[in-house]
Amino acid sequence: EKINAASKEENQVLFSFEYFPPRTHVGADRLLQQLDRMSAHSPAYWDITWRDSAAKLSLEMANVMQNIFSIDTMMHLTCTKMSIETIDHALQIIKSQGIQNVLALRGDPPLGQDKFVKAEGGFESALDLVKHVRNKHGDYFGVTVAGYPEAHPDVPRNDDGLPSSEGYQNDLVYLKRKVDAGAELIITQLFFDTNIFLKFVNDCRQIGINCPIVPGIFPISDMRGFLKMTSLCKTKIPSEITAALESIKDNEEAVRAYGIHLGTEICKKILGHGIKTLHFYTINKEKPTLSILMNLGLISERKVSRPLSTRQEDIKRMS
Ligand code: FAD
């Protein structure tokens, strides 16, 4: 089914999990086992990221996520190195798998390049992709787009590291164009300053963006990943977080525990502002996300679903 990110009941909090296609067979096996355990916690939906070099795997994973685990699945789709034909092919495949949700993205520049270049016979932006999905498939797909509480990293920054106000405004206007073209849901880039996220939601509402805006939560699980992501996304890191991490940065376990504590506090603040949806960048790790959900009282003890062995037979039959 299409994702409905609005909670059905007044106090119900919806949460969702994001995964990336693993690089090895061992990784794929591990991810299947993890999905099996995570599915028992009934996420509202889950999604699989896209990179052109792993397209086949994203399509296969999306099929398993939707049809073996029976959880509404959203596949990311980008314009990087993708012609319109390859985009259409991917959309056709997921349609035939009964998947009804797409996260339409421009995508990052191809590996080793620092500027996005439109593929030959392809699209220049997420806006083009949203329009294309709507033109070609009507309202079959629920279309989601990315939103940037601190503006897209290409937007010029001031000395304080924050985006210029003109750049921020242009980014918002452009986001509205993606919504006006047919996107029904926004998932945000990661952030660590919750006030920036709350201001972003407010600013979106001010300019007439009315669809649900789902905060992207990134549980810190190790220093390397944290530094890589925040420098890539040009994320502002509040000074108290820098200070807390500075004192424990060589202790992996302490960093993980702090990541869970911080993630819990960020989610609490968001939920306290009446926002009832949380999207977790799991980076294919299980414990940080589950610990945060447990701290929030949104899940209880580890549940066990149908034994994976029976699913593995289904998976074999499918491929
Ligand atoms: P766009 O919406 O096209 O915008 C990119 C930038 O260009 C913005 O600053 C926008 O303001 C500007 N811009 C573009 N066109 C115009 C225009 N006509 N007028 C004015 N400004 C314009 N990357 C992957 O490779 N695979 C993934 O699976 C993936 N998943 C992601 C999931 C989420 C939730 C998020 C937030 C990001 C994800 N990314 C992924 C990263 C994303 O691809 C990059 O951030 C990329 O650089 C921009 O993609 P976009 O869809 O936001 O682009």
TrEMBL record:
Q: In which pathway does it act?
A: One-carbon metabolism; tetrahydrofolate interconversion
Keyword vocabulary terms for this entry: FAD, Flavoprotein, Oxidoreductase
- UniProt-listed GO biological process terms: methionine biosynthetic process; tetrahydrofolate interconversion
| The UniProt record lists the keyword Oxidoreductase | yes
- Which cofactors, by name? FAD
Molecular functions per Gene Ontology: FAD binding; methylenetetrahydrofolate reductase [NAD(P)H] activity
Q: Which is a Gene Ontology cellular component entry for this protein? A: cytosol
Say if the entry is tagged with keyword Flavoprotein: yes
Q: Which family does it belong to?
A: Belongs to the methylenetetrahydrofolate reductase family.
Q: What is this protein called?
A: Methylenetetrahydrofolate reductase
**Species in which this protein is naturally found:** Protea cynaroides
